[in-house]
Design a protein that fits this description.
Elements (H helix, E strand, L loop, with lengths): L9 H30 L3 H39 L8 H6 L10 H13 L5 H28 L4 H33 L7 H4 L1
Helix pairs in contact: 1-2, 1-6, 2-4, 2-6, 4-5, 5-6
Protein name: DUF4328 domain-containing protein
Keywords: Membrane, Transmembrane, Transmembrane helix
Organism: Actinacidiphila glaucinigra
């Protein structure tokens, strides 16, 4: 098999899913500890919130890296599976996440394009809905955090809303990774992930 041959991103998918789930859970603990420190600032609360925040940053960084590596591999496979598909370049697949304003809408389109090019089994209505929900949850998380920072960092409703969006975004991201990986695995003749999403 040549270096340009498509390879199922199953291992990358599993690593990315695990890292994303871990980061989402750690974000909940981080939010709780930061709120506790904001309400009852002590040396101990400062230390605890600082440690949890540091671990979260490491976990989130790892999750981002693994997700982007998986995304690049999925884009590569999609291009080889459907050469005529309209796909972003390899650089732009990653770059869209870091360009101000563009990163409010372009990443959603990248996922849609990769999904559509991965297999004729892509179900436009259902799968596009999952992409839209994932992106709405991710943007909602950022908006809720920004609002809490501007109004009241200790607001239970705002903190809870932000974390609910974070958990939802993580779960939906995992679902999308599973779906696209399963589609590409089937197209490449490799075993698909054994899950309801993959089997649907």
């Amino acid at each position: 098999m040549s270096s340009k041959s498509p390879k199922s991103p199953l291992l990358l998918a599993r690593c990315a899913q695990t890292a994303i789930a871990a980061a989402a859970i750690l974000d909940v603990f981080r939010a709780i500890e930061l709120r506790n420190h904001y309400l009852h600032p002590t040396r101990q609360s400062l230390h605890t919130s600082g440690m949890v925040s540091m671990v979260f940053v490491y976990a989130m960084t790892l999750a981002i890296v693994l997700f982007l590596v998986w995304l690049a591999r999925a884009r590569h496979n999609a291009h080889l599976l459907t050469p005529q598909a309209s796909l972003p370049s390899r650089g732009w697949t990653i770059g869209v996440w870091f360009v101000p304003l563009v990163n409010f809408f372009a990443p959603r389109q990248v996922l849609l394009d990769i999904g559509r090019a991965s297999s004729v089994s892509w179900q436009e209505t259902r799968d596009r809905t999952v992409v839209n929900l994932w992106w709405a949850a991710w943007l909602g998380h950022g908006l809720a955090l920004w609002t809490a920072g501007r109004i009241d960092p200790a607001s239970i409703p705002l903190v809870a809303l932000a974390e609910a969006f974070m958990i939802a975004a993580a779960a939906l991201a995992g679902t999308l990774i599973e779906r696209i990986t399963a589609l590409q695995g089937a197209a490449l003749g490799t075993p698909a992930p054994l899950s309801p999403v993959a089997q649907s």
